[in-house]
Design brief:
This protein is an alpha+beta fold. The chain has helices spanning about 15-35, 50-55, 55-60, 80-90, 135-150, 165-175, 180-190, 195-220, 230-235, 240-265, 310-315, 330-335, 360-370, 385-395, 405-410, 430-440; strands spanning about 40, 45, 65, 75, 100-110, 120-130, 160-165, 270-275, 285-295, 300-305, 320-325, 350-355, 375-380, 400-405, 415-420, 425-430. Bound molecules: histidyl-adenosine monophosphate. The site of histidyl-adenosine monophosphate has 23 residues, from strand 6, strand 10, strand 11 and helix 12. Histidyl-adenosine monophosphate binds next to strand 6, strand 10, strand 11 and helix 12.
Amino acid sequence: MSDFKSLPGFREFYPEALAQRRFLFQVWRQVAVRFGFREFDGPVLESLELFKAKSGDEIEGQLFSFEDKGGREVSLRPELTPTLARMVGAQANSLKKPIKWFNIGDNFRYERMQKGRLRCFTQLNADILGEAGPAAEVELISLLIQTLQGFGLGPDDFYIRLSDRNLWMLFLKSRGFEDAAPRILEVVDKWERMPEEAKAKRLIEIVGEDGSTALRKAIDGFLETKSVEDVLSTFASASVKSDLKVQIDARIQDWEYLTSGLEAMGLSQFAEMDMSIVRGLAYYTGFVFEAFDRAKVNRAIAGGGRYDSLVKKMGGPDMPAVGFGMGDVVLADVLAERGLQPKFVSTIDIFAVIGSDVERPIALSDINLLRQGGFSVDYSFKSQAFGKQLKVASSSGARFALIYGSDELEKDEVTIRDLANRNEETASRSRLLSLLREKLG
Ligand code: HAM
């Protein structure tokens, strides 16, 4: 065993694992292109400041950061969103809106190792910039759903938990907790995993002993919200000031737009309103959502939301934005649990069986031509008995073996053996390429 082990959380991909990985990327890319998204990329190394300022405290503690040889404080990217916001902001005027971009790339977070969490993982990011209305959310959530459907997952396997930081803010404002709202949402983000005493203690720290009971009741009540009708009744029961009422009504209309858009696309069974999702990243402003497996045995497959102020904070113009990231680790776990990871068998088109070193130069010349012609061709490096080479040819998965024996080459011919049924025919070498094109399409 080597002492030079790979680092914890960094994977090695042997060919079979790499084929699985490519399959994920292929579906990601196919579906994103189908939705009219264009692929882009940014640097994997950025200034440390970018993520400290934009991603928030939770991620700050997980940065792979160091000082480079020029004395700059830098970090590997833990996520792509701040980079995207900067890139779009820098060329905002010349880019056609809405901007629909996607990326497939590696991200790095120094996380505690656990199921579904590694230190280097790949994300599909899909984002829409320049559209303020919920039409962008409909587009992204349907992309997220179709992507997961593209792997064979259905409504019994996964669902999207839809929530809204904006509605949370309006709700907390209506209950008199406006000033403490950002800190309250930090607690809500961890609510599911928090023991009872810890919840009580945090709420007292935030609003004091007196307010904490009312706040606790308010949070528990709002977490029960499961539909637009529930939202309506939540706000109907409180005496709400008229300016707040206007904002609430507008927000309810956005919810109606979003849910009816998903319904029109036939995707309602995949989405549920779930106010426990508020998302840990610092920049989210409106709708937020996460995709989970129905059995809830895995962490989130994907997560995202609206971040309307980030482009401006990155030095660009005021530009609304919404997007999501889907990681390869949880997705691969979910697919494996359901037996949906296809088995990959590596195959080639042709295996050349070479009689002896006398025939080798002619065979090599044909092999090179066939490869230039687009076929995948393999052969043994050493002279070996025909029988042995034919065995290797069969196990290589090749469709055809080309046999270069002395009898054939005397007539400038080659024997083509169909490895599926062992039928053989001879062909003149000059016709080999066109004949194989006919046979292999
Ligand atoms: P996020 O929720 O931090 O969001 O990550 C999105 C997804 O990336 C997660 O649901 C998970 O599948 C995967 N992921 C995150 N951390 C790890 C890890 N340590 N190991 C394996 N997988 C991981 C974001 O990153 C946002 N930037 C997404 C976004 C794009 N929001 C708007 N646009």
